Amino acid sequence: MQMKYKLPKGWIKDPQEILSTFVKQKWRLALAESCTGGLVTAVLIGAAGASEVLERSWVTYSNQSKIEELGVDATLIEQKGAVSQEVAEAMSAQARTRAGVEIGMAITGIAGPTGGTDEKPKGLVFIALTDAEGISHHRRYLFSGDRQEIRARTVAAALAWLHEWAS
Fold it and tell me: Of 1, 6, 72, 101, whose CB count within 10 A is highest?
């Protein structure tokens, strides 16, 4: 699924709703972030009650950190590339497993201004979520804008998906 995404009004105002719903569901969360560099984590921990939900978070920016910190298979990264559905799903599944939580989410993408190709252009982002049953889901986005806009849109998309998932 490819989406063009516009920042919704008040996109950053309600991490509290996500946390409250996770608490009601008795879900804990682990995050693995690459191109967002911990921004989703920062937004969530800005809200009261984050410690009841967020077990841990990794910033795995390099391929090596994805391999060493999360246990993503190096061959998978070689074959599919770090910015791929498969690697995003592996990151979310490994974050969930390593943290011993119900929900894992991972983000990998190309925020630019360099690094894009015709096959994988600047603005390509994969967000994966591994649910309580261990099933991985993903969303593919192609955002426009500069580096900071792409990162902000990615954070907004991740928070929107967490809100949707929890509701």
Answer: 72
Q: What is the mean pLDDT of the chain?
A: 92
**Coarse DSSP helix, strand, coil percentages of the chain, rounded to the nearest 5 percent:** 45, 20, 35
Using DSSP's 3-state secondary structure scheme, residue 126 falls into strand
Q: What is the CA radius of gyration of the chain?
A: 15
Q: Are 150 and 109 in contact (CB under 8 A)?
A: yes
Nearest to 38 by CA among 163, 151, 139: 151
Residue 106 has a pLDDT of 98
Distance CA 67, CA 84 (A): 15
- CATH domain 26-166 topology: Maf protein (3.90.950)
Residue 1 has a pLDDT of: 40
* Omega within 30 of 0 (cis) for the link into 121: no
Distance of CA 105 to the CA centre of its chain: 5
pLDDT of 167: 83
Which among 106, 167, 153 is positioned nearest to 8, based on CA atoms?
A: 153
Instruction: Count the residues in the chain.
Output: 167
Reported in sequence order, the residue ranges of 78-159 that DSSP labels E, i.e. its strands, are 103-109, 124-130, 136-142
The one-character DSSP state at 8 is P
How many CB atoms are located within 10 Å of the residue 138 CB?
A: 17
